[in-house]
Amino acid sequence: MDLQHLLRAHAARAEAALQQRLPPADELPAHLHAAMRYAALDGGKRVRPVLVYTTGGVLGVPLEQLDGPACAVELIHAYSLVHDDLPAMDDDDLRRGKPTCHRAFDEATAILAGDALQTLAFQVLAEDPAMTAEPAQRLAMVRELALASGSRGMAGGQAIDMAATGGALTLPELQRMHSLKTGALIRAAVRLGALSRPGLAPALFAALDDYAAAIGLAFQIRDDILDVESSTEQLGKRQGADQALAKSTYVALLGLDGAKAKAREVHAAARAALAPLGQDAEPLATIADFIVERVS
Fold first, then answer.
1. How many C-alpha atoms does 252 have within 13 Å on its Cβ side?
2. CATH number at residue 259
3. 254-277 per-position pLDDT tens digit
4. What residue numbers bound the domain in which 62 lies?
5. pLDDT score at 163
6. Which residues, 6+ apart, have CB-to-CB distance to 109 below 8 Å?
């Protein structure tokens, strides 16, 4: 299966799985459920679910057992985007080429939709019937996603980002911020796929984790580059938003050429980390290629 086919197939599977696990739009409270579905469905590259499916697939885990973890990580991602777009955060009007959730509905509904998407993620991991994971595996997944989402992960990274707006971070500070804000959830996606395989050798788990940390950084560096080089139409969100808010970025600190060189460096590290898995890991290696080459 070539990369584009793999990305499309896994993204479509994630969309169908989310459709099934989200509350119906006509179930009370209908306005809230409609907002949840608006935020979570029909959009995005589904990079995090794709990583869950691909990691699990490389390890021989059946796809149906990965639907729950894939949905859980994407629900957390969707909630984070709803809250990041709010006026109190980044105050964005456009996401994935359509009005942000608080513009399509209202601010209060958007806050509640984000809250509900977050809690649904953990409900899915706790009780999804398609998962055959043992209770200890489920608990490890819940812990993994909670750590990646909270103050020591994504939320903490966003707090650092908000505090630094208009100021200047050093390169190590910037890398630390993005390892939390963006990298933690990407890392969790790979780890959830790995945790779906019972009895995985610790050395292989560590190799996958090193890969995940590298692609999480590469993803953010590429985002910073696209904020300069791409267009609003290509991105599906406001181009130049980071520059307008005077945020510290890899481009601001390293220059455009320096940021591209850094992306190539971490991309090479991601591919090298997969060596212990041999040729079986090639699908993950091609996803690393996609992350540093993507145009949106």
1. 20
2. 1.10.600.10
3. 999 999 999 999 999 999 999 999
4. 3-293
5. 87
6. 31, 32, 35, 101, 102
